[in-house]
Every structure is written in C-alpha cells, then in structure tokens.
Amino acid sequence: MDRAQNSPASATAPADDSDIQALRAYLEANNGIRGLEVLKPGDAHHAVELFRRDGFVVIADVLDSSGVEILAKGCAEVAGEILELDQGRRGNRGSHRYSFGGSSLTRSQLHRPEWQMLLEIPLVTEVVGAIFGSPDFVLRAASGDFCLPGAVEYQPLHSDVRDWADAPTTPFSSFHDPRGQLTIRDLPCPYVCVNFLPQDVTPLNGPTRQIPGTQHSRTRIPTLAEEPEWMRLSTVCPAPAGAIMVRDVRAWHGGTPNVSDAIRSIPNLEFYAPWFREPIVPGITYADYQKLSERAQRMVRDCVADSSETLATGPTLRAPLTCATAGLAVPPCRSASSASGP
C-alpha cells in the first residue's frame, strides 16, 4: 500500500495509532529526494546553478551553533504565543500548520531580533544577489512556517506567487501581460524565499516537498488526489540544523506530515528582485531599522514604518491586509521613500 497516498485523514489521531505508526515507518524508509545535494558555504556559483535548474538549493553550515540556538528559541517563543490562540490546533495553513507571517499583526516577524539577525548573514545576501544578478534586491517580509506533531495530512502543492489579479481578489499580485503571451513563469526569478533551519529536517518531522524544475511550468498543479506518489516523497531531507533552503517561490511545493515528537520550524526571509514589486506591509519600526547595518537597512527599506508611527505587533490567527499601527490605518502598499531617514 502507498502509505503517503493513504495517510490518515484525521490530524488528531494519537501517536500510537496503527495508521500513524505505519505512516511513520513508510516515510522513514522512503521519504526524501534521492541524491539531494547539500552544498557547503563557499560555492555561490554552484548554488545558483542548482537553484536555476531545480527551483531550490540547500546550503549547510550557514548558521553556527549559537545562531541556531538563538533562532530556535525565538521560533519556540513565537509559536507558543500563536498556539495560545488556537487550543484546538486547527492551524491557519491546515490542521496543526501555521504561518509565522500569517499569524502576525504585521504579516511578518521582522520586529523580532531573531529574524533581524538573519539579515546580517553575508552568505545569504551573496547568494540572493547572485541569483538576481544585482545587490539591489529588497526584503518583502520575514516569515516562514511551523508544523506540530499531529500534522498528518499533506498540504496541497502550490506556488507562492501568481499573475495579476484584481484588488477584490487579492491586494498582493503584480505581473500582467495584456497581450496574454507571457506569465510570471516566463520571467527570470522575481521572488526568492530563504528558509533557515533551526533544527534538523528529517523524513518524519514535516520536510517541505519540492517538485524540481517546476518554477517555469505552465502545467496545472495537480490536486492531492491527482498527485503521484513520487511527488509526495519528493521532500528536502535530510537537511541539518544551520542550513538554508533557497527557493524560487514559483516552484511547486507543499507541507508534509510531521509524525515526529517535536515542532518543525522553517523561519524565512523573502526577497523581491530589483525589478519586481508587489505591495509590502511595514514590519519594522524606524528605531529598530536604525540599529541594522547599512546593508540590512538597504534591504528592508520598503518594510520600515515611518518614524512617527508606533508599530502594533503581536500574534493573530488571521493576519490583516493592512498593518496595525497606533491610531493609524496604513494601506498595504508602502513606498520606500515614505520612511524617515536614509
């Protein structure tokens, strides 16, 4: 029997349930992309080659043990605040699944020092700059996701960016060819997500599944019912704590079961190419912005609140489409020049 195709329908089954035990054994034996290449720092050129071929690349040893510890603690604190709002573990990305950004009043965790720390890692800016062919990219948000033990359902495959849709559908869309000849998938990569691993990612703790080479595909993404078994097992694991996973968000990807005994977190930084923009919600105060390095300030220039504004932060299960500030209704689209200072 294909255990991945026939995973338990209930996300509340106890860990000793026979179906969960069978799924755990099946995933331990079969889960993971065969021949997954995990790079070491120092080869940005090869990283870009793999990224352009597959739509993602994994690089180990980007965070040292101290950085891993700081990030893991920050993720645990944020997750704890979010879970206080959801005793039933219904999640906001499926049962037992949560978005760090989708669970924040600012749609981001950029106000947290742990995520700000990630802006100062030279290898990240080196690789992202090499992908875009320019150092002039900007931060969209600092987000990511986490899943709990008990997340035994698969998240449908999806892409994180789309062609333009009108405002009633979503305020967050951009590219449109009125001739109907080009889609966002025909362009160079417009939008990169860098996930950071504060724990090992294993076949059992909900590794992200990535379908290699789909970033330019115009084929309709299969539903869960249509998805072949090999796609269910096409997961980015094993990958060590301290690694990063750099993703073209157009590539098909999705969440998988966490049948381990611990939370799996993958916080991220999301970047727009110098030539691409969608609306950006402010996520960092001007005071915190001033504490960043000059390079980090340049990256977050479209995410900083005006010096006159107080940024309202905190957990929520339904992130607003606008940023919550003290006494102000801030529209979802911000201009880099609207923030005071350089």
> What is the beta-strand fraction?
5-15%
| Count of strand segments | 11
Outline the biggest β-sheet.
7 strands, mixed
Computed CA radius of gyration, to the nearest angstrom: 19 Å
Note the gap between the termini: 60 Å
Alpha plus pi helix count: 8
Strand neighbour order, sheet with most strands: 1-2-7-5-9-4-3
- Could you say which structural class the secondary elements and strand pairing correspond to? alpha+beta
Q: Which residues sit in consecutive blocks of at least 5 with pLDDT less than 50?
A: 7-12, 323-342
Coarse shape: globular
Order of helices and strands: HEHEHEHHEEEHEEEHHEE
Report mean pLDDT, rounded to a whole number: 90
Describe the overall structure:
With 342 residues, the protein is α+β, with helices and mostly antiparallel strands. The protein is built from eight helices and eleven strands. It has helices at 18-30, 44-54, 65-83, 113-118, 122-132, 229-232, 286-291, 294-299; strands at residues 38-39, 56-59, 97-99, 138-147, 191-196, 209-210, 244-248, 253-254, 264-272, 323-325, 328-330. Strands 1-2-7-5-9-4-3 form a seven-stranded mixed beta sheet. The chain has a two-stranded antiparallel sheet with strand order 6-8. The termini are far apart.
Descriptive terms for the model:
two-stranded antiparallel ribbon, 11 strands, disordered C terminus, single chain, alpha+beta, 8 helices, 7-stranded mixed sheet, 342 residues
